[in-house]
Structures are given as C-alpha cells and as structure tokens.
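User: Here's a chain of 220 residues. Predict its fold as tokens.
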Amino acid sequence: MEKDRIRETVARLKKYYSTLVSHLGGMEENPFEILISTVLSQRTKDANTERATEALFSVYRTPEEIAKAPLKRIEKLIYGSGFYKTKAKRVKRISTQLIERFGGKVPADIESLLSLPGVGRKTANCVLVYAYRVPSIPVDTHVHRISNRLGWVKTKAPEKTEEELVKIIPRDLWIEINELFVLHGQNICLPRKPLCFKCPVESLCECPFKNLYSDSEKAS
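Assistant: Prediction complete.
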C-alpha cells in the first residue's frame, strides 16, 4: 500500500467535507457523553444514536446521575437506539464502575476503557480520538466498508481491519480517519448504491464494483 495514495485520499476527503468536519478542529468534547453515545451506537443507525444520546443527556448528564437513575427511565429515554434494555443496563453499569474505579472520570488509556462493561475496541478508540485526541483508529461500519472498497485492506471483521489499518496509515492521520470515513459513508460511499459519480476519491478507489450505480443515480 502506497502511503502517498493514502495521504492523497485523506487530503481530498478533508477538502470535500471541510464544511462538515467538526472534531478535527480540536473542539473540546465530553468524554462521558462520547463513551455513552458510542455504546448506544452499537447495532443501530447514526440518526438513532443521535436522538437517543440527546434524549438521555437532556435528563442525566453525569455518571453519578445515570448510576442513580431508575433503569426503566433510562430504557425509555434510549428506546430509539434499539436493544434498549441491554444498553440501559450497560450504561448504568459503566456509570457505576466509573464512579467506583475511576473517580467518576472516563479513563484515557485503552486498557482501562476496555475493562468497562460492553466497551470494545471501537468504543474505546472513539473515546481516545474524540475526547482525548490520542492517535487511534476507531473502526465502525463506515471505516470497515470504505477501507475495503478503497483496496486499503481485505478484511471481514472490524477488529482485523483496525489491525491492518494501523500498519499502513501514517500515524499522523489516525485521528482524522474515523470522522472523514463516517462523513463519506453517510453521504457518498453508501452501503448500497454508492454515489461513485460524486466521489472525490473515485480515481483512487480500487473497488471492482465502483460506478455500478452511477448511470441510474445520475438520472434519478
């Protein structure tokens, strides 16, 4: 994998999504909200995650408040995220452990984050990137799909995708990858019928099925 092609891809995406990128500007983020939001994002759509996170944090803002909150109330607030009963228990347990083990603070190291209930590598890496700006590559469905379509990796599992990406992507680009690929996955490189004719990195993409839907999408 040529590092120059990776850098060119990132540069083009940054330019294309310059008006939408928020996290790359160094905005201060709430580590606890990022942690809980990423937990709520598991097995659901981005829009559902946003609504559930907003509903929950409009009522409860801190680990202490969520730890004390009635489970049924949490379930009702995050209902739209799907699997709400499981997620409500998880959110409550995470809040409790943050208080008991970390003084109510979200840890800033991968090992401690992974020790929390229901926190996998994607969630932990999201906290590191968006809350603490620690170079990491959170691999969600967008990063997994797009990095495979581009030909950067040939993997079937997100964990393997992360393992391969950290080998080929220059470390100074790690923090940018997730948000850029999420934006690209939401707007152009869609799961079905990607809009290749609009894609700023189409010429750098090695997907054998690119442009398959271009004619029909242009006409619609």
